[in-house]
Amino acid sequence: MLNSDYSGVLGFFQNANSWGMMFSSMLENTGSSSSIGILSLAATSNSNNESMLNANISKEESMISVERKSLMAVLNSANEIMQGLPTQLDGINQLYSAITGYNQSK
Question: How does 11-48 read in b/e, with b if 16+ C-beta sit within 10 Å?
Fold first, then answer.
């Protein structure tokens, strides 16, 4: 084809609106240097997704911190109650002994 119609082959690759020019334009626009290139658009999308995920992580960490504080307060309250049980049990035993005359310390 090059020997018989060199100018036709050359035109296929170099003429305006030719396959070669369209292919060249497509390759140039695919890269990240073009604002409409597929790599540039993918990078922008990835950056937006990363920002959204980081915001969600921060929100979840804040919620976990609030929940942790709440649970710590509940556990501290339960711990105080549990520490007071032996004293209350001793008082109940004393009342029982006083009422029944039964001494549990024997």
Answer: eeeeeeeeeeeeeeeeeeeeeeeeeebeebeeeeeeee
pLDDT of residue 58: 97
Contact (Cβ atoms closer than 8 angstroms) between residue 18 and residue 11: yes
C-alpha 26, offset from chain centre: 35
User: What is d(CA 20, CA 39) in angstroms, rounded to the nearest whole number?
Assistant: 21
Report yes or no: 45 and 39 within 8 Å, Cβ to Cβ.
Answer: no
Q: Letter for the amino acid at 23?
A: F
Give this prediction's pTM. 0.53
